[in-house]
Amino acid sequence: MKKLILLITAVLSMSITTAYADTAGYTNISGIALYSDADYTSDVAVKLSLNTRLTIKSENDDWYNVVTQDGLNGWIDKYFVTVPAEKYVINPSESLINIRTSPTTQSKIVGQLNPGEKAKYVDTFHSWHIIEYENNEYYVASWLTDLEYGEAQKVYLLYDNTYIREQPSLDSDVLSEGNRHECYDVVSEKNGWLQVALPYGQTGYVAGWLTTYNQNYSSEGELSYGKTAANLNIRSGPSEMYDKIQTLAEGSDVRVLSSDNGWDKVISSTGVVGWCSGDYLSEAYPLSGKLILLDPGHGGKDPGSISYSGKYEKYVNMEVALKVKAKLESMGAEVALTRTGDYYITNKERGRMADNLNADILLSIHHNSLENKDYFGLSTYYNTIHYKNPDYGYNLAEAIYLNATTVKGVYRDGILDRNYEVLRETNTPAALIEIGFMSNPVEELTIHNESFQNIMAEKIADGIVDYFNNK
Ligand SMILES: [Zn+2]
Predict the structure, then answer these.
(1) pLDDT tens, position by position, 389-416
(2) 43, 166, 317, 445: which one has the fewest Cβ atoms less than 10 Å from its Cβ?
(3) Phi and psi dihedrals of 412, rounded to 5?
(4) pLDDT in tens, 310-359
């Protein structure tokens, strides 16, 4: 009899679980639990960072069974995983394109893409596309290739009155306008722009940063923050009928995902998801009590990088720093600036200022440039020399990077250990961000765009919140 029951259970579980051919998905929220079972009351295997790549092995109604890149297996609510459409890298030219072991022209050549040939796209790193080739991951130069979608990818517009343009550039003609929550099918991608289908077989381009793949965005608003006003039970559903998962002590911080009939769906600081009565949650400011020193790079006699069209980096660094300042203040932080106008100050003074003010963190804001105008992407930096605790700088650089690279059309250029004076000359946890390449003619236009700067400021602030939550 016992054997029969086991057999029936096995058949049942097979019928509701769909196997996958190794689809990749990415976490769309930071600090989310990976569970040992498809059940909120099961044990937490690990807390995952934002934008973590997961391999989906199977699914049931609401959960994915996944393996992390460290080989850890577990279950995650589908709601917190965004699965991008399959994309291909195509050789649009008449010549061969080299496939290499690293994102540099000095690295070993392992093969070639023939004219018209395509390979499965994995990601973009340091201005090179990562492709699947002979069961391995290799690199091809992004500026020599095109990116196509194997199936239509749905994107949602983040804002009202979003322009859809004839070409993938901010200086191109406007074809039409779309509004927040509207959905489009993407057919290809170029320089951070998405080519979308319009009525009557037309297509147009929308800036990636004005869109999201995350379908949850259209049903929910933005995250808000709460603090428990009493010891509070978190349950597996929105009423007292559901199982208790955890009791949070009075004064615990939570993030609120949605509300339903007086109950809030929350994520605790340990990554546990559940519902609690909204009556016992008070609004919280996630950065209250924190002092943050922002450093708009360069100034005065030092212009910083000079852009493709001749603009100075020192000005755009200040524009972004002021937007980040406003965002951080709205989250409760006190914010100081290393310079408040266009004057020169040494990097050593900037670093020391963080210690003198007793700031919780220092963030230096910059924009990159290179002689090769093809290069693009966002990088963050930390420094491990002379540090009381080198982890702090890395953790800050990583948290900001993971948030900033969720912006569509912003590509990864790495989290790097660099001996920069502003990071070295301080004992305060410090990081530096290079938001994009001013030397790239397309990315330069993006960098100077006000809506892009606002989105980037928001993501930098979200990264700073994640840093303090994970400290
Ligand atoms: Zn700079």
Answers:
(1) 667 899 999 999 999 999 999 999 999 9
(2) 43
(3) -75, 130
(4) 999 999 999 999 999 999 999 999 999 999 999 999 999 999 999 999 99
Per-chain mean pLDDT for the chain: 91
- Cα(464) to ligand 1 centroid in Å equals 20
Give the Cα separation of 337 and 11 in Å (integer): 63
Residue 84 CA, ligand 1 centroid: distance in Å: 33
Q: How far is the centre of ligand 1, averaged over its atoms, from the C-alpha of 369 (Å)?
A: 8
Q: Which domains does the chain have, with CATH numbers?
A: 18-82 (2.30.30.40), 87-144 (2.30.30.40), 148-212 (2.30.30.40), 222-283 (2.30.30.40), 291-470 (3.40.630.40)
pLDDT reported for residue 13: 40
Give residue 427 CA to ligand 1 midpoint distance, Å: 21
What pLDDT sits at residue 176? 95
Phi, psi dihedrals of residue 221, rounded to the nearest 5°: -90, -150
The pLDDT of residue 5 is 42
**Distance of alpha carbon 295 from the chain centroid:** 22
SS3 90: strand
Task: Compute, in angstroms, the gap from residue 338 CA to the centroid of ligand 1.
Answer: 14
CA of 460 to the centre of ligand 1 (A): 17
State which amino acid sits at residue 201.
G
129 C-alpha vs ligand 1 centroid, how far in Å? Answer: 26
CA of 212 to the centre of ligand 1 (A): 29
